[in-house]
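queue> holo job accepted (pyridoxal-5'-phosphate)
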Amino acid sequence: MGQFYKKCDKYLRFGEPTLVKKTGIYPYFYQVCGKQNPVVQMDGNEVIMLGSNNYLGMASHPKVKEAAQRAIEEYGVGSTGSRLLNGTMEIHIELENRLAKFFGTEDCIVFSTGMQANLGAISSMLSEKDEWVLSDQQNHASIIDGIKLGNMSSHNKKIYQHNDMDDLEKCLKEIPKGKGLIVTDGVFSMEGDIVKLDVLVELAEKYDSGVYVDDAHSVGVIGPHGRGTAAHFDLVDKVGIIMGTFSKSFATIGGYIAANKAICNWIKHKARSFIFSASPPPANCATVLAVLDIIEKDESYRKNVLSVADRMRKGLKNLGYDVGDSSTAIVPLIVGERRKTMKFFKVLFENKPRGIFSNPVVHPATSKGGELIRSSYIATMTNEIVDEALHIFEDVGRKMKII
Ligand SMILES: Cc1ncc(COP(=O)(O)O)c(C=O)c1O
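queue> job finished
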């Protein structure tokens, strides 16, 4: 193994994870015991779960679990093949038709993960040398990697300042009209703020650009019945490509692209992560169908998660925390320093009798100096739990001089 063994061995002995473990504040790979509920057991601690993306609480909804079990009985546990060849089952088609109807698009295709959806869709769209991509500075890693896989030079990649429409316009002016694809998160995954889609779409029209919105954290949460960012702004017909994932509000795993027939046809014949990977197992598809059954009829889950997050956001602001521009189910607590963020996570986690599990987010997932604790909320959380969490944040934040 030569070089390959040596570099891994060196990293194991002296890499940052090992050094951080020695200081006792390593915050990753904690095990959740049992279900992803508002209060969970983790590594022997009872903690309030402010670190999951189970926004609607569907991960343990009885009807959703029942649907997944029924699908296993009916279709078996897996497809064992790629959609292109032998992995297309009737439940994939049923799900794609249902999602297209839900989002109000002509067509939809389902991937095995959201990461694969972004890798495959973005790289296949950016297939020519004379195309440009304009990407928000805080877009998710799967978008960044999808762009890297596209067939274009670094000259054709424009990264604009986060949600800064003036900077986006500056970038659009530098490229030929009709040759740009603007790619953005709908709800930004770390700070929970919403893209200024109304202005972005106006710019896209002015410069004849395509629009690609990643709705991983929007679907289920914003827009009527959780139809996502484009629906929230009533701009579904102006957003060319809507991407999303099943790993958050839909409480399973998988991803999708909702677009017109021509775009879906292009992606399903050209996206390598779609063609060369097995299709999602039937139970995942049945899970999403069951969640759709619920959220199409009942807005209470979506309303609850937004009101829980709102109560938290107001409470944290009153305590003196910097919670950025969030207005969704994600509320960041900006700490601004790497080690302090990890320490904050650890002290929150170990608080007794109950701690808080959250997500410490450090550079490169944030800007340097923008390190934060990412908290996220579940529709089934009660006000008592929220208030308990606020008390813990007050206590720990004061002790650590964060507030
Ligand atoms: C904005 C965004 N896009 C895409 C993904 C990838 O989704 P998946 O977990 O389905 O691979 C994530 C997951 O964290 C995300 O936050």
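queue> Residues 113-115, 118, 140, 142, 185, 189, 214, 216-217, 245, 247, 255 surround pyridoxal-5'-phosphate (CB under 6 Å).
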